[in-house]
Inverse folding.
């Protein structure tokens, strides 16, 4: 179990991740964000308990992404498979997500929704993940964004699988910082 609490003048967020079956208890006051987080949990297989309040919609969505990303970074075992890659069709939308939890943040999109494109960038930065999202086709923004969250969840499900060893040609990386 991993819990991350993030508080600022703009937002208050508590996120707990547990190995489970993808059950979500989400309260952000933003119905579409709640819907996306429930889909993310369901498809990733990670239980998510998240409660958030905020002053502005943009601050809330961005800070939830930051908090969830930090939680994923802490939750992922060093010996996970790291990589996940999924394509999800949803009505008119077809979205592909490729993910690496290897510790190098990078995001390439975009999604047709600036807020949710920013969500994914903030998530990737804070999860220390490489995240590529390709919208192959689609016209309905809701369907495209939802397909992206589902594909991200499925890719994360694959990336979190225990591999039995550090999945890198470098092996374990030791970093020491002193002041």
């Amino acid at each position: 179990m991993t819990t991350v609490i993030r508080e600022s003048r703009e937002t208050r967020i508590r996120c707990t991740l547990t190995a489970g079956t993808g059950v979500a208890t989400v309260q952000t006051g933003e119905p579409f964000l709640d819907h996306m987080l429930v889909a993310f949990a369901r498809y990733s297989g990670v239980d998510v308990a998240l409660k958030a309040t905020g002053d502005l919609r943009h601050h809330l969505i961005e800070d939830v992404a930051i908090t969830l990303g930090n939680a994923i970074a802490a939750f992922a075992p060093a010996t996970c498979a790291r990589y996940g890659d999924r394509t999800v069709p949803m009505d008119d939308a077809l979205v592909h997500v490729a993910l690496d939890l290897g510790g190098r943040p990078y995001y390439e999109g975009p999604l047709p929704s600036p807020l949710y494109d920013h969500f994914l960038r903030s998530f990737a930065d804070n999860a220390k993940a490489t995240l590529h999202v390709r919208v192959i086709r689609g016209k309905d923004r809701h369907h495209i964004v939802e397909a992206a969250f589902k594909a991200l969840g499925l890719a994360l499900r694959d990336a979190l699988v225990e591999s039995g060893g550090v999945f890198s040609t470098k092996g374990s990386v030791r970093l020491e910082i002193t002041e």
Notes: DSSP finds four helices and eight strands in the chain.
